[in-house]
Amino acid sequence: MNLQFYAAGTDDIDAILQMQQDFYAIDQYNFDKQAAKEALRVFLDNANYGKLWLIMYNGQLAGYVALTLGYSFEFKGRDAFLDELYVLPEHRGNGLGTKAVEFVAEKAREMGVKAIHLEVEAHNEAGRALYRNFDFQDHNRILMTRWL
Questions:
Q1: Which residues contact 101 (CB under 8 A, 6 or more apart)?
Q2: pLDDT of 145
Q3: Which helix (H) or strand (E) holds 54?
Q4: What's the average model confidence in pLDDT over 10-37?
Q5: DSSP assignments along 108-128, one per residue
Q6: How far apart are CA 131 and CA 126, in angstroms?
Q7: Rounded distance, CA 119 to CA 82, Å?
Q8: Is the N end or the C end of the chain the one with fewer CB atoms within 10 Å?
């Protein structure tokens, strides 16, 4: 398998935006291209927020994965969200999701992360199975969000 992960930079924003738009469309999430572009620019310009990597498979852009950083007393220090993992449809079924989770877990360890969290849609059985294979566990909590 010819698989590589490259740290994204601001030159990659347009390619990431296209994939994000396709990713968000799967579950009909709102996608504001200008707001997303600004969020990517700010994120990529500040390593304290985390990292975003492009997934390259056989020399082609195949997706991206983002790890965002936080801090938690409950988890005894730095924690993170595997915030987004997207593989282009034509590259699915090749184990890229599995390799991306392995890669992000290793990078997170190197960054001193104690726990990785993620969200997955209840209907996304393939995603839930992938994450369970890496010992991500459901717990008796509900993620709640307030937009500011």
A1: 82, 85, 130, 131, 134
A2: 86
A3: strand 50-57
A4: 97
A5: HHHTT-SEEE----TT-HHHH
A6: 9
A7: 8
A8: C
Q: In angstroms, rounded to a whole number, what is the distance separating the alpha carbons of residues 4 and 130?
A: 20
57 included as an active-site residue: no
Nearest by Cα to 16 from 48, 40, 32:
40
d(CA 88, CA 71): 31
**Cα distance between residue 45 and residue 3, in whole Å:** 25
pLDDT tens by residue, 74-125: 999 999 999 999 999 999 999 999 999 999 999 999 999 999 999 999 999 9
pLDDT at 139 > cutoff 90: no
Structure tokens at 66: 């983002």
Tokens of 68: 């965002």
